[in-house]
Amino acid sequence: MPSMFIEVLVGLIGILIVIALWPVLKRPSSGPSAARGTSAARGKRHAKRSRSGLNAPAVRRCPVCHATLVPGERIRSVVFSGGTAHREIHEHTTHIFGCPHCYPNNQVHPRVCPVCDATLTRDGYLLARMFKRPGKKDHVHVLGCTDCRGPRSRRSAPRNVE
């Protein structure tokens, strides 16, 4: 009888230890997928903000020239009306020209496409999709530039089929 009581007690203690250590055991292992986890990404964003002070915004960079933007500097872009809507998310086509450092075109801050790494021409721009959600910040996904994604690209050129 006492040995059965000890076995049940050891089993309950084991279950309590597993429950207490569950958050540690559930954490993803190190590797490429670990950095994509929501808690890891949230921790990195929080660490960036807390370095410069309480509730300080994260460092903003221009997607074209990667220059650091100070508060008040804006990226020049065109957001086209229309687009598509799925549930609460509205998607719009966007042309991104650059920030005050790189637009209009200059030699100090070269304008580079983040997709194909080509230098943008004087009249070039980035093609992107902007996702708007009510109550949240806008999210921009860069698709390419006028050279790699635009109407003159090799991908959209008509093919000779014989």
Q: What is shown here, in short?
A:
The chain is an alpha+beta fold and 162 residues long. It has 3 helices and 7 strands; from the N terminus they run H-H-H-E-E-E-E-E-E-E.
Commentary on this structure:
- The protein is elongated and about 85 Å long.
- It starts with a helix and ends in a 17-residue tail after the last strand.
- It has a domain of 95 residues.
- The longest helix is centred in the N-terminal third of the chain and has 25 residues.
- It has 3 helices and 7 strands, in the order H-H-H-E-E-E-E-E-E-E.
- Strands 3, 4, 5, 6 and 7 form a 5-stranded antiparallel sheet that branches.
- The protein is of the alpha+beta class.
What is the makeup of the main sheet? 5 strands, antiparallel
Count of alpha/pi helices: 3
Spans of at least 5 consecutive residues whose pLDDT stays below 50 are none
Count the strands? Answer: 7
Helix-strand category: alpha+beta
Along the chain, the helix and strand elements come as HHHEEEEEEE
| Proportion of residues in extended strands | 15-25%
User: Termini, distance in Å?
Assistant: 88 Å
Radius of gyration: 25 Å
Morphology: elongated
Could you estimate the helical fraction of the residues in percent?
25-40%
The average pLDDT score comes to: 76
